[in-house]
Amino acid sequence: MALTPATLTRHELIGLPVRVAAASNPDLVGIDGDVVAETTRTLSIESDSGRVRKVPKADATFEFSLPTGETVTVEGDVLVERPARRTERTGDSKWR
Predict the structure, then answer these.
(1) Does residue 53 contact residue 47 with C-beta atoms inside 8 Å?
(2) Which end of the chain lies in a sparser environment, N or C, as judged by fewer CB atoms within 10 Å?
(3) What does the alpha-carbon distance between residue 43 and residue 65 come to, in Å, rounded to a whole number?
(4) Which domain holds residue 46?
């Protein structure tokens, strides 16, 4: 499955550049870097300085940068699910 704005929420997020555009906790807004880990409820984002911050998915809005240069805004509520379960919903998963 190709990574496009339409398929981003069903794609592997680790390795993608991301920025927290909005969050219920104002201290989290503006965090940017690469996604280095994902759990059911959090994204771990590593900044250029090497610091890793965990951001709750449900309480934030994320802006992902695709390799094509496009920026995709995603409400974190859409991402709240086990990563393996979220990515297998494409219909063509051999792991289903």
Answers:
(1) yes
(2) C
(3) 15
(4) 8-87
